[in-house]
Specification:
The protein is mainly β. The chain is 4% helix and 55% strand.
């Protein structure tokens, strides 16, 4: 399954769970993409900003994520690195609990669902597990999150996936455009650009 080229940038408006916005830019590199973005939000009466620069290789496996958060409690930074074979390091320390993950998933971002969708390239009716290194918005804590994607028939020009994350007891249908970017993430985000 092929995707059309990514746009220069994209933007999402947060829904229901939080108020705010995310803006992302895609920079093609020799061996993949650098994705740079920023999310600003208010959630449970707390305001925060998360900035990120994520490098993915040509197979859409996360290789590096530099994430910074700001909130009333201060500023935090973390560097997450992966070898592309499922081994991870957080600020230089090996993180064996993330073994087997190939994607980073930012709690603050709708965009990071792009990574497994591109990497897996599922045909209609196919499904796959896609565990990820999940980065919390406020404290940048990193933990393993199990996720599952099932490609379902979509309406004209749209790609649709049934998505589930058991740890959050969350299930929804994600809608992507022809470039593999989330258009509709029920309860969390809607694409604005």
């Amino acid at each position: 399954m092929g995707f059309v080229s990514l746009p220069e940038g994209a933007a999402w408006r947060h829904l229901d769970a939080r108020v705010g916005f995310e803006v992302t830019y895609f920079l093609a590199q020799e061996d993949g993409y650098r994705v740079e973005g920023c999310t600003t939000a208010v959630e449970d009466r707390l305001s925060w900003i998360v900035e990120y620069a994520i490098d993915v290789d040509a197979a859409w496996r996360t290789r590096r994520a530099r994430v910074t958060s700001r909130s009333a409690s201060g500023r935090r930074r973390t560097l997450i690195e992966a070898d592309g074979d499922g081994h991870w390091w957080i600020d230089g320390a090996h993180a064996p609990d993330l073994d087997g993950c190939l994607d980073v998933d930012l709690e603050s971002s709708a965009m990071t669902n792009t990574f497994p969708v591109h990497r897996l390239g599922l045909a209609v009716g196919a499904d796959a597990d896609a565990p990820a290194a999940f980065v919390r918005a406020l404290d940048l804590g990193v933990e393993r999150i199990d996720q599952h994607y099932t490609r379902v028939p979509g309406e004209s020009g749209r790609l649709e996936y049934d998505y589930s994350s058991p740890v959050f007891d969350f299930h929804c249908r994600l809608v992507f455009d022809e470039s593999g970017l989330v258009m509709d993430y029920p309860g969390l985000a809607a694409r604005e650009r």
